[in-house]
Each structure stands twice: as C-alpha cells, then as structure tokens.
Amino acid sequence: MGDSNKGDTLRLPNGDALTGDEVKSPFLIGVAGGTASGKSTVCKKIMEQLGQAEMDHTQRQVVAISQDSFYRELTAAEKAKAQKGLFNFDHPDAFNEELMYDTLQDILKGHKVKIPGYDYRTNSLDFENMLVIYPADVVLFEGILVFYFPKIRDLFHMKLFVDTDSDTRLARRVPRDINERGRDLDAVLTQYMTFVKPAFEEFCSPTKKFADVIIPRGADNTVAIDLIVQHIRDFLNNRSRPGSTGNMALYMNLDLNASGIMGPDHFGNGTYNAIRRFSTLCKELNMQGNFFFDTNKNLPHH
Ligand SMILES: Nc1ncnc2c1ncn2[C@@H]1O[C@H](COP(=O)(O)OP(=O)(O)O)[C@@H](O)[C@H]1O
Ligand SMILES: Nc1ccn([C@@H]2O[C@H](COP(=O)(O)O)[C@@H](O)[C@H]2O)c(=O)n1
After folding, report:
1. What mean pLDDT comes out for the span 104-121?
2. Rounded to 5, what percent of the chain is helix, strand, coil?
3. Which residues form the Phosphoribulokinase/uridine kinase domain (predicted)?
4. Distance (Å, rounded) from C-alpha 197 to C-alpha 272?
5. How far away, in angstroms, is 8 Cα from ligand 1 center?
6. Closest residue (by CA) to atom 10 of ligand 1?
7. How far is CA 76 from CA 79, 82, 237, in A?
8. Averaged pLDDT of the chain
9. H or E stretch including 213?
10. What average pLDDT score do residues 23-47 get?
11. 216 — phi, psi (to 5°)?
C-alpha cells in the first residue's frame, strides 16, 4: 500500500469503518449460481489450486462457506411439509438473513465464527457438527441466493456467478440428491418443477446482473478458474508484502472498467501491476468467451 493511504479510514465494501486490530479483514468473494451449477466445485478447485484444501483448518488462508448453514430452523409444521417435499427451500424466506449478515460482518472483522453444518436428509441445521471458521485472508461464500439480499450483497469485495445451463444442472442435481441427499427420483423431480425452477427464475437468475465475473460452464471453465486463482495469489502476495496494511478492500474495491483513472500513486506498484494484469487478462478472456467480466455494471440494482 502506498503512503497516500496512510491515515485513511479502512472500510468494508458497505462503507462500515474498520479500525485498530480489525484491519486484518478478509477479502470476501460471493459465489452465486443456480442449484448444481458447480458453485461448491468451483470453490473446491480454487482451494485445491491454492494448496489450501489439504491444509489444516486453523492454518488456511482461503476458506469456503456455504449459504446452507444459514437456512432458518423450521417449525414442526414446516418440517412435516419438507419431509413430503412441500417446503420451498429456494425462496429467500427460507434463509436467516440477519444471522447471515451478522456472521459475515464478524468474519470481515477478522473474528473466528462457528456455524452449523446442514443435514439434507433431515432438512435441518446440524448443530452436532459445528464448523469453526478461523480468520483467513480470503473467504468464499457460496449459495443460490448470496446476491439476493442487498445488505449481504454489498458486503462482497468480488461477486462471481457460476452460469451452467439448466439441463446440465438438472442432470447433475438428480443423481446428487438421490445419492448424497437421501431423496428419491419422484421427489427430486416434483420439488424441481414446483419450487426449484420457478424460484431460480424469480430470485436467483436475476442476481446474475450483480456479478463482477460470470463463469460460463462452471468448474469446466479451467481458464476462468486459473484466472481467479491467479488473482487471489496476487492478493495473498500483496498482503504479505512488507508495508502492506493487509486491507483487501482498498486493493480490490474498484471498477476495472475505470481503472485507467488510477495510476501507480494510488497503490504500491506491485498492486497496481497486478490489477493491470488482471484487467488485461479479463478483457482477453472475455473475447474468447471464457469469462464475462462486469457485463451488467450499469443495470439498476433493483
Ligand atoms: N464440471 C462438472 N462436471 C461434472 N460434474 C460436475 C461438474 N461440476 C459439478 N459437478 C457435479 O454436479 C453436482 C453439483 O455440483 P456442485 O458443485 O455441488 O454444485 P452447487 O454447489 O452449485 O450445487 C455434484 O455432484 C458435482 O460433483
Ligand atoms: N433441506 C433442503 C435444503 C436445500 N435443498 C435444495 O438445495 C439447493 C441449494 O443447494 P445447492 O448445493 O444445489 O446450491 C436448493 O435448490 C434447494 O432446493 C433441499 O433440497 N433440501
């Protein structure tokens, strides 16, 4: 970070100030996309390529969290409905928005947090298997509706949308739900037609416009994943550089389409060069159809 930033107030993407010990705030990446689009697989690949997957949880620089941990607890009547496949888990009301927001805020403040796992067989949060999220440099938060709630959307430094066609998603969801989530074929198809598909069209798909980067074909798009991995590497290197304040928000919260207005005086030269490299690569990949970069920046947010 250049001297020009000394004494600046460090801020989260939503404008909240960070002070003192809180400056080791992680770079928060939102990963949205329809069911079975490959969100978890993309996150897993990113973690693997960064050598994080095999690392002890307490030591990881990059961690991934699922929005499923923020489903709200169901009433007895809702549980009964869910067991018959009659509860809509794809509607925004199925999530605990406040808890999700507070937890992400805690993470951005560099705090250790505990979140429950999720058990699809019982449609309930799994408090027996709490996940401890240790402070990290980069946090990936993935889920179908991570860009739906404006307050939460504004917390992300970077927003990725995994864009896989709906036939492929359904073809992947069916075996996954049968083999891993304890469902039968009829129930999967009925739930898909009754809730999943209409909710995708109403709530998830429209959030694609908020993405900074759209990844066609999900985890198959190795070019896009390599680029994102390289970008995160640049971050991690920049953060560990002597003299860096460690504040990712100042590094990342920028409009690359307008990056021509920023000169090396704004950042250290290493950071500036990393941004330029990223920007150039994005333009090239965009032209090759591997990546859509910031396509809808000017659309209204609602
Ligand atoms: N590129 C891919 N090729 C083949 N199968 C895939 C691919 N990406 C994901 N899958 C499979 O599809 C299913 C859904 O993928 P997942 O990453 O869990 O999606 P999401 O997190 O978006 O629901 C999983 O069984 C996963 O193994
Ligand atoms: N008890 C539950 C909770 C969620 N679902 C479905 O999971 C989908 C979201 O997870 P992905 O990994 O597919 O993104 C969502 O479409 C819900 O329908 C469920 O079936 N049961």
Report:
1. 97
2. 50, 15, 35
3. 28-223
4. 42
5. 42
6. 38
7. 5, 10, 50
8. 81
9. strand 213-216
10. 94
11. -65, 140
| Ligand 1 lined by 39 (C-beta under 6 Å) | yes
User: Residue 172: CB within 6 Å of ligand 1?
Assistant: yes
Residue 156's alpha-carbon distances to 11, 122, 298, in angstroms, are 12, 31, 18
The radius of gyration computed from the CA coordinates of the chain, to the nearest angstrom, equals 20
Between the CA of 208 and the centroid of ligand 2 the distance, in Å, is 19
**What ranges make up the beta strands (E) of 10-145?**
10-11, 17-18, 27-33, 62-66, 113-119, 124-133, 138-142
Q: What one-letter code names the amino acid at 112?
A: K
Q: Average pLDDT of 90-103?
A: 98
**In the chain, % of residues over pLDDT 90:** 67
Among 144, 126, 293, smallest CA distance to 223 is for: 293
pLDDT of 11 above 80: no
Alpha-carbon distance of 160 to 39, in angstroms, equals 9
Q: Which domains does the chain have, with CATH numbers?
A: 27-225 (3.40.50.300)
Name, in order, each residue with C-beta under 8 angstroms of 117's C-beta and a sequence gap of 6 or more.
Answer: 69, 125, 126, 129, 130, 131
Ligand 2 binding residues, C-beta < 6 A: 35-36, 39, 89-90, 120, 123, 144, 196
Q: Is pLDDT larger for residue 25 or for residue 107?
A: 107
SS3 28: strand
Closest-CA residue, ligand 2 atom 1, reads 123
Q: Whose CA is nearest to atom 3 of ligand 1?
A: 220
pTM of the entire structure? 0.82
